[in-house]
Amino acid sequence: MLCFFGLYGCSSNPYGDSYGVADTRTIQQVYYGTITKLEPVTIEGEGEGQMIGALAGAAVGGILGSKVGGGSGSDIAAIGGGLLGGYAGSKAGEGVTRRNGVNITIKMDNTGKTVAVVQEANPNMMFRVGQRVRVNMDGSTARVVPE
């Protein structure tokens, strides 16, 4: 199960230099600006990883709990095992999907407005205050890359 979570957690790469299949052949608006502030953030695990962890944990906990005792005691142990396993699996899934990120505040050239974009930190793409960047926007999502 841990191998599955490890592979699942690595399946997507939200860095500014990686694109998924859904990103291909889409038109993105391109804007330019200057970084005015950088803040490290933690991107908390949630969503599918947490749900899959909860389901897997509940199943394993329920199976193990059903092996305890007999009759109604076995049923109660299975329910308790399922609840505890679901909680533990949810926390494991959350931990596996937790990532280091950066909140990038940018003063946009075209409007003079200031925007902020949170994306996963990439050790191969380090940003600094005062750096010129390109902001690729598609609807309400954006990614920041060096100019």
Question: What this model shows, in words?
Answer:
It is a single chain. The longest helix has 25 residues, at 72-96. This protein has a 5-stranded antiparallel β-sheet with strand order 3-2-1-4-5, with no helix packed on it. Mean pLDDT is 74; it is low at 1-14. It is 35% helix and 31% strand. Helix 2 (48-66) packs antiparallel against helix 3 (72-96). It has 147 residues and is α+β, with helices and mostly antiparallel strands. The chain has 3 helices and 5 strands, in the order αβααββββ.
Summarize the structure.
By secondary structure, the chain is an alpha+beta fold. Helices cover 35% and strands 31% of the residues. It is built from three helices and five strands.
- Widest sheet: strand ordering: 3-2-1-4-5
Count of helix runs: 3
State mean pLDDT (0 to 100 scale): 74
Helix content: 25-40%
In N-to-C order, the SSE pattern is HEHHEEEE
Radius of gyration computed on alpha carbons: 21 Å
Please state roughly what percent of the residues sit in beta strands, choosing from under 5%, 5-15%, 15-25%, 25-35%, 35-45% or over 45%. 25-35%
Number of strands: 5
The first-to-last residue Cα distance is 41 Å
What structural category characterises the helix and strand content? Answer: alpha+beta
List keywords for this structure.
31% strand, 147 residues, 5 strands, alpha+beta
